[in-house]
Amino acid sequence: MKKVAKFIAGLAASTATYTLLATKVVAQYDYDWDYDYGTTAGDTAGGLFGLGLGLICWIPICLVSLVSFAFTIMMIIDAAKRDEKVLPGKIKWIILMWFTSPIGALIYFFTRKKKMAK
């Protein structure tokens, strides 16, 4: 169990590092937030898309992303708990799931976890 906790802590640390690096890269580009994207008196489509339709599109995308990330983490934890005799190539499965999320987690779920449940 200590190995699993250490592995998860390492993944969290690397994710935090990549997030920090990404924010530094994004901060290099100065974005003009005051620019008017066609929201003049006769054109309200830009304002409607920016506020209403933008939220309608982004909220489901964020929810699907969170669910797929949680599913991937659950499958990684499941693979990490398995014995090497039960799940040969355990480290390869974990690496596959981490770098091909959520496709790798779905492959693991349908090929290995279902077989082990039987």
Describe the structure.
The structure is a single chain. By secondary structure, the chain is an all-alpha fold. The protein has two domains: 1-30; 48-118, no CATH class. Helix content is 75%, strand content 0%. The chain contains four helices and no strands. It has helices at residues 2-27, 45-81, 90-99, 103-117. The longest helix has 37 residues, at 45-81. The protein starts with a helix and ends with a helix.
Keywords, separated by commas or semicolons:
single chain; mainly alpha; 2 domains
The rounded distance between the terminal residues' Cα atoms is 24 Å
What is the average of the pLDDT values? 76
**Structural class from helices and strands?**
mainly alpha
Question: How many β-strand stretches?
Answer: 0
- Taking all Cα atoms into account, the compactness measure Rg is 21 Å
**What percent of residues adopt helix (DSSP H or I)?**
over 70%
In short:
It contains four helices and no strands.
Furnish the topology, listing elements before pairings.
Elements: H1 2-27, H2 45-81, H3 90-99, H4 103-117
